[in-house]
Write a structure and sequence with these properties.
Shape: globular
Oligomer: single chain
CATH topology of the largest domain: Aldehyde Dehydrogenase, Chain A, domain 1
Strand order of the largest sheet: 10-13-14-9-8-16-17
CATH architecture of the largest domain: 3-Layer(aba) Sandwich
Number of helices: 15
Helix content: 25-40%
Low-confidence stretches: 333-344
Structural class: alpha/beta
CATH superfamily of the largest domain: Aldehyde Dehydrogenase, Chain A, domain 1
Number of domains: 2
Radius of gyration: 24 Å
């Protein structure tokens, strides 16, 4: 959408903000609850859209819709708990008979720029708390996945949210997104995406509020006392690395294993990864579908090959899947819909299917160590102890979540204190997330926190009221 259309949406949002401010917290909470009920009634329809747009498996799509429902319900509950606090002015010297408090007030119009990988739940993490706090929201979904968010916003309107209060503008980030960000009447931008785009948004938007979830290359450390749990850890690590073809902000990209357990864990992990069933994401038996598009597959494989050229050892994958490997025949796929220029190799290999990839001996300056692959690739490196593991984990410019498996309480505390991340998972993979927890990172992983309660704090301003009773 061009700038003029976005600017009109902002003008409508001004009207929507005034309308929505007049609703009580109870009324807003009830409307959010109704929106969750409507989403539940339309769960299968929205899930099928996710499969078609995102290439999620049907089970992954259903799970996302269920999480989105919970995110809306959590926001409905938190709408009634957006408290202020008494301020004790008389705790200052020479102050008497002054009483007061602060309250939280909505920011105003919020621009929500959302990614392709979780187009419903990550949109709800911006929309539902924002509405609960009394704001007007303009959603700019990923140009790759706009249909599902458009359908869900219709359900919010049906539930009772004024059409001016919640709107969607679609288009490219450099056009539609830019127009939304630079509009002075948009008081806050909440964004999930890349570091590079996040930096552009802040430079373009100037002085306004921001929350940003900018990705990660999540790490897992397996301590020397975990021999009895290696199979269990390998099973969970497989899910953490290859769910949604690795296109998750907290996908496991880096695994560090104590040298005593390295060989045994590697055997267990490779055995698990080899059993991943690639295929049509519409089929229930499929474990992993394709990545979002050919360009993403090109980049993923290019980065992996660069790391191999630096000395990393390829153990599995590192290539596209053949049609027969994913249960497709060449004549079932219209290649012209998938690639701009037909390449001979794509008559053999599917342009968007990357085989689950495992490397080892990955170097400190490699892509997988320092960048976010956002694809089905992970490395397993050995380390001599927890100190080396922490040192290697902290080499990353990101700091979203990390995990450790250990029975040693001192090691668990050391890991929690010294690893530079917003979330530390003890005896759990770093891909663990529930939607009520504070979620966000340090370093290049972002600004602020999501999770309905914490997002509402980000999406409000503190207003102080003081009474002089002298």
């Amino acid at each position: 959408m061009p700038k003029e259309v976005v600017d009109k949406a902002v003008e409508k949002a001004k009207i929507g903000f005034k309308k929505w401010k007049s609703y009580t917290p109870y009324q807003r909470s009830e409307i959010l609850k109704k929106a969750a009920e409507l989403l539940r009634k339309n769960k299968e329809k929205i899930a099928k859209l996710l499969v078609l747009e995102v290439n999620k498996t049907y089970q992954e799509a259903l799970a996302e819709v269920e999480r989105a429902i919970q995110t809306i319900l959590l926001s409905s509950e938190e709408t009634k708990r957006l408290f202020g606090e008494e301020v004790i002015f008389e705790a200052a010297p020479k102050v008497k008979n002054k009483k007061g408090y602060y309250t939280r007030v909505p920011v105003g119009i919020i621009g929500a720029i959302t990614p392709f990988n979780f187009p419903i739940n990550l949109t709800m993490h911006k929309v539902a708390p924002g509405l609960g706090a009394g704001n007007a929201i303009i959603v700019k979904p990923s140009e790759n996945t706009s249909l599902a968010p458009l359908e869900v916003v219709k359900l919010f309107h049906e539930a009772g949210v004024p059409s001016e209060t919640l709107q969607v503008v679609t288009g490219l980030g450099g056009v539609t997104g830019k127009a939304l960000v630079e509009n002075k009447d948009v008081k806050m931008i909440t964004f999930t995406g890349s570091v590079q785009t996040g930096e552009i948004i802040i430079k373009t938007g100037g002085l306004k509020k921001y929350t940003m979830e900018l990705g990660s290359n999540a790490a897992l450390y397996i301590d020397e006392d975990q021999e009895d749990r290696l199979r269990e850890i390998a099973k969970k690590a497989k899910i953490g690395a290859f769910a949604l073809a690795g296109q998750v902000c907290i996908s496991i990209q880096r695994i560090f294993v104590h040298e005593k357990l390295y060989e045994k864990f590697l055997d267990e992990f490779l055995s698990e990864v080899k059993n991943i069933n690639l295929g049509d994401p519409r089929k229930l038996e499929t474990d992993m579908g394709p990545v979002i598009n050919k360009e993403a597959a090109d980049r993923i494989l290019d980065w992996i090959n660069q790391d191999i050229s630096k000395g990393a050892k390829l153990l599995l994958g590192g290539r596209r899947a053949k049609y027969e490997e994913v249960g497709l025949k060449k004549d079932e796929v219209k290649l012209e819909n998938l690639v701009k220029e037909i390449d001979k190799e794509f008559y053999i290999y599917h342009p968007c299917f990357v085989v689950p990839t495992v490397l080892t001996n990955v170097k400190d300056d490699s892509n997988l160590m320092t960048k976010e692959l956002f694809g089905p690739g992970v490395f397993v490196n050995k380390v001599k102890d927890i100190n080396e593991a922490i040192e290697k984990i902290n080499l990353s410019p990101y700091g979203l979540q990390a995990g450790i498996y250990t029975n040693n309480l001192k090691h668990a505390f050391k890991f929690a204190q010294e690893v530079e991340c917003g979330g530390i998972m003890i005896n759990e993979i770093p891909t663990f997330r529930v939607d009520l927890m504070p979620y966000g990172g340090v370093k290049n992983s972002g600004i602020g926190r999501e999770g309905p309660r914490y997002a509402m704090e980000e999406m409000t301003e503190i207003k102080l009221i003081c009474f002089d009773l002298n």
